[in-house]
Amino acid sequence: MVRTETPVVDRSFMVPEFELPGVDGKSHRLEDVRGENGLLIIFMCNHCPYVKAVEDRILRDVRDLKELGIGTAAIMSNDPTDYPEDSFENLRARWEEKAYPMPYLFDETQEVAKRFGAVCTPDFFGFNASGYLQYRGRLDESRKEPVTGAKRELFEGMKQVAQTGQGPEEQIPSMGCSIKWKDDG
């Protein structure tokens, strides 16, 4: 697994339109998942050890952010050919098992990940109500091993976005497995 870090937040980046199938059997568009105070898009997958290590904390933060008017969608963009754990069926099973509080979307063509500039799992994109990127940092300082008393950086950053429309000035990049791109040929 190649470890990759996210780039610095680009506050001029506006959330791209998308429409993807969800494991719930519905098609989801940007407008379906946007909250009144902002939007969090999480590129994640089932097989990544970084995601597995923080999954429960991600779900906790998504639930808490919903109360602040932040809508969320998880998007899986890996090529599942070499990673069967990331197949549509296995995504659905995980979504049901963990009772995900957000849609889990399948980006089979990987076009949505490319439009966002996603690089790893997990990769967090936090947008304000106007659709501008305000958060591109990490979940917390724990990385793969929990740290007692770790500051909830994603939650606090998105709470600030919900309240002010602006993300924190200082953000530490997220780290995870690189997205598994399809062979070009």
Automatic annotation (TrEMBL):
**Superkingdom of the organism of origin:** Bacteria
- Where is the Thioredoxin domain positioned along the sequence? 9-144
Disordered, as annotated region: 162-185
Q: Which CDD domains match?
A: PRX_like1
Return the InterPro entries for the record: PRX-like1, Redoxin, Thioredoxin-like_sf, Thioredoxin_domain
Q: What is this protein called?
A: Thioredoxin family protein
Which lineage?
Bacteria, Pseudomonadati, Pseudomonadota, Gammaproteobacteria, Thiohalorhabdales
